Amino acid sequence: MKPKWQAVVVLCVLIVLIAVPLLSCGGKGGEEVVTITIGNVTDLTGPASVSMRYINYALEDLAKYYNEEHLIPGVKVKIISYDTQYDPSRALPGYDWARAHGAKITVSVMSFIGEQIKPFAARDKVPLVNLETTKALIDPPGWVFCTSSLGVDSARTMLKWISENHWDWEQKGPAKIGFCGWNFSTSTEIVDAWKGYCQSHPNQFDWSGSYLVPIGATMLAGEVEKLKNCDYVGAVGNPTAYLARDFHGIGSHVTLLDPSTAALAGVQFYSDIAGWDALDGMLSISGSPLWDQDMPVVNLARELLDRYRGDKAQEIISTGSPYVGSLHNQLPILEILQAAVQKVGAENFDGQAFYDAAIKYQTSGPTWEGYPTWGFSETKRDLIDDRLMYRWDAEVENVVKVSDWIPAVKE
Fold it and tell me: Do residues 124 and 39 both lie within one domain?
């Protein structure tokens, strides 16, 4: 009879022999699978987490979908997430943590996170995909690829559309326009763009000033008092909800403007804070269709919700654009990864392979039917070149598309 310790050794060896094939295989047809990790430097518990939750869902669901459908043969995509708590000082620790855990690509949403990571991504040759776009991220071009639209282009495009479709300046004279928002780069860039546009089009717009407040500020009564006689007031992110509430509270008829798409990412939040009567008539601009559009990426978003978030699908749709909008922004990550692996092979994939595929990427094929063709290049790092305009409608308590694709007004 063998000693007990020998039996244990034999059992352990058998377990290992059984487990090894399971660990080395697992792909379709039994091919070996290489895990490629994407580090998501995000906000899980901070003030932006309400919207970020659904953006994170979209990235996770896309990875599951690509894995289950074996869309990148020989590859399993793994998403790991770091909580910045919306604190800029946690951007670099998040990037370092992702790299330490094997990330070959980094993803972030907020510009102030991406701007801090940018030089280190170039140093380490780890591509950064940022969902929000600013000049600092794309100029000079580097290892950052922004899958949305430059905020200043959206800001100028919005004013051009207003002058042609919303404000009769020939009869009423120039519209008075101002801005109030949290003090970070997206806000300052939009302010500069609007001031410049007003100076170039004095018959159409009269600049009434801007007021930038600390990130996280919610009490904006003083700024509302200073801007109450404007025809239009723009904002970025959560301050838009507080402005809508306070303008409505004093009976002001200001039309609010969302030039960064941030409000579309929090429709439920904004309506909870301000109410639909206060939001009625607000204008938003976006580089992606929303839930009411019968388009391939929107339909893919619905499919993924049904497959992975069935019990939360209606809740996610009711929040606005975070899931469907970010799916438009994050799908290119998987498509670029797919092209890179096809080019160099899964075992040879690295940051350089992703970079080389990214600078040749274009939106094309059946998935992007009905969209303009967008892409990156050796020098172009913002993906989306066209916009759609939306109006907030209290009667239907929803956001309604009011334009076809509009070519962006660039500098």
Answer: yes
Q: Say if residues 220 and 236 touch (Cβ distance below 8 Å).
A: no
Name the residue range of residue 326's domain: 29-149+293-380
Measure the CA angle with vertex 255, ends 253 and 261; round to 5°: 155
Residue pLDDT, tens place only, 121-175: 999 999 999 999 888 999 999 999 999 988 889 999 999 999 999 999 999 999 9
The count of C-alpha atoms lying within 13 angstroms of the C-alpha of 326, restricted to the half-sphere facing its C-beta, is: 30
Residues 214 and 333 in one domain: no
Asked if residue 42 lies in contact with residue 84, where contact means CB atoms within 8 angstroms, the answer is: yes
Residue 23 forms part of a structural domain? no
Distance, in Å, from the CA atom of 20 to the CA atom of 211, rounded to the nearest integer, reads 62
Structure tokens given for 91: 């951007």
Q: Quick one: which H or E segment has residue 129?
A: strand 128-130
Q: How many CB atoms sit inside 10 A of residue 348's CB?
A: 12
The secondary structure element, H or E, covering residue 267 is helix 267-274
Residues 168 and 224 in one domain: yes
What would the pLDDT profile of 18-67 be if each residue is shown by its tens digit?
A: 333 333 345 555 668 999 999 999 999 998 888 899 999 999 999 999 99
The whole-model pTM stands at 0.85
> Around Cβ 230, how many Cβ atoms within 10 Å?
24
Identify which of 73, 74, 92, 72 has the alpha carbon closest to the alpha carbon of residue 82. 92
- Distance between CA atoms of 229 and 233, rounded to whole angstroms? 10
Assess whether 317 and 339 both reside in one domain: yes
Rounded mean pLDDT, 69-97: 97
Strand duo 103-108 + 128-130: pairing: parallel
Radius of gyration of the chain (CA): 24
Cα gap 205→160, rounded to integer Å: 10
- Edge-first strand order for the sheet with 75-83 is 75-83, 34-42, 103-108, 128-130, 144-146
User: Per the structure, how many domains does the chain have?
Assistant: 2
Q: Which residue has the tokens 């972030």?
A: 108
Burial class (CB in 10 A: 0-12, 13-18, 19+), 11: exposed
- CA-based end-to-end distance of the chain: 85
226 Cβ contact partners less than 8 Å away, ≥ 6 residues apart = 178, 209, 211
Q: Which residues pair with 392 in a beta bridge?
A: 399
